[in-house]
Design a protein that fits this description.
Distance between the termini: 117 Å
Largest sheet: 10 strands, mixed
Number of helices: 12
Radius of gyration: 34 Å
Helix content: 25-40%
């Protein structure tokens, strides 16, 4: 009888332990294992919260902003950059931010190393300086548009008859940061001309020329230049011809100055041969499908599609001569720009 009672007591204790364990685990099981309904509705609820939450201003403002390095505040590139920004603006869908920099000749530095810069206006021959520093420079950058040529003007005193007459004499290349200050000495070096270079404002240098203190001034800008159109010059002041040959094929284009542009300095029917430095809109060659590339692709689409607006009154006259299909020596075209041209039948003759 005693054994029966003992067995019954042990069974009762075991049953009680099981009940206590189940009671202790029940809350934990409810937490760890939600119902099937909860498991299905939680992801959907999170998705709804994400969709309903408005994006922060810093997200929307930066999502489609393109930083465009222009140049010096008083130069043509920053003005062109500002006009581009006006035309392509599309609210939160595209915002171009023109940026004042140290000049078009230093904009390659900005494009390569400055945060927030996606595109820049440069002079094509500035790439010469980067060949040794950045061997793959021509793969890292690509041109969007050949904006306009900047013609070389070598303006000399009456006693100067040829380029060789300038050797050893004072020649002004404008102030540092300008196209003339960079490209002028580079071109003279290719021509083998060892001159006494000065870098003062052209207005001062032209007055020195009148007095015989300066032999020549070198302008590199798009023609016509006001100083030569409106200025009064004694007989014999002139532009020297600069022949285009193989030494200039890498970055330059053939060009000419004629009487229609400078009636006081060039006789009717005459032309002065020279070379031109292409001023180009260039982009960093971001990987396709990256966010930065997609921004630039949208920028290209808006710019090319609206180029005719830039040719209307109120914008720089240079836009009227833009040819979307024009190439830039030394660089490949930005893939999105080439794709845009390939899609349309007007590509080859766009805005000529």
């Amino acid at each position: 009888m005693g054994q029966v009672i003992a067995v019954g007591a042990r069974n009762a204790k075991a049953a009680l332990r099981k009940l206590l364990v189940r009671a202790a685990l029940a809350p934990l099981l409810m937490i760890v294992q939600p119902s099937d309904v909860d498991a299905q509705t939680q992801p959907a609820a999170r998705q709804l919260r994400r969709e309903a939450a408005p994006q922060k201003p810093q997200v929307t403002m930066n999502a489609w902003t393109v930083g465009l390095a222009g140049g010096l505040l008083e130069g043509a590139p920053i003005r062109l950059a500002a006009e581009v920004a006006r035309v392509v603006d599309d609210g939160d869908k595209l915002h171009v931010l023109p940026i004042v920099t140290r000049g078009a000749t230093e904009n390659v530095n900005s494009l390569l190393y400055l945060r927030g810069i996606d595109a820049a206006i440069i002079n094509s021959d500035v790439l010469e300086e980067y060949k040794s520093q950045v061997p793959d420079i021509q793969q890292r950058l690509a041109y969007v548009l050949n904006l306009f040529p900047s013609e070389l003007h070598v303006f000399v005193r009456p006693e100067i008859q040829s380029l060789n007459d300038l050797v050893g004499k004072k020649v002004n290349f404008n102030t540092q940061g300008t196209a003339a200050a960079y490209s002028g000495p580079l071109i003279f070096s290719r021509l083998g001309l060892d001159v006494e270079k000065t870098f003062i404002p052209h207005q001062i240098a032209l007055e020195q020329m009148r007095k015989g203190e300066m032999a020549a001034v070198v302008f590199i800008t798009s023609k016509p230049v006001d100083a030569f159109v409106r200025g009064r010059w004694e007989s014999g002041f002139k532009f020297l011809p600069v022949p285009y040959d193989r030494k200039f094929e890498d970055y330059y284009l053939p060009a000419a100055l004629d009487a229609a542009e400078y009636p006081n300095l060039i006789k009717p029917g005459e032309r002065v041969t020279t070379i031109a430095v292409p001023t180009a809109l260039v982009a960093f060659n971001f990987p396709t499908k990256s966010n930065r590339y997609e921004r630039l692709a949208r920028f290209v689409d808006h710019l090319f599609s609206r180029i005719e607006k830039l040719q209307q009154p109120g914008f720089d006259q240079k836009w009227k001569s833009i040819n979307l299909a024009a190439t830039v020596p030394g660089l490949a075209r930005f893939p999105a720009a080439q794709a845009w041209l390939d899609r349309g039948p007007r590509a080859a003759h766009a805005s000529q």
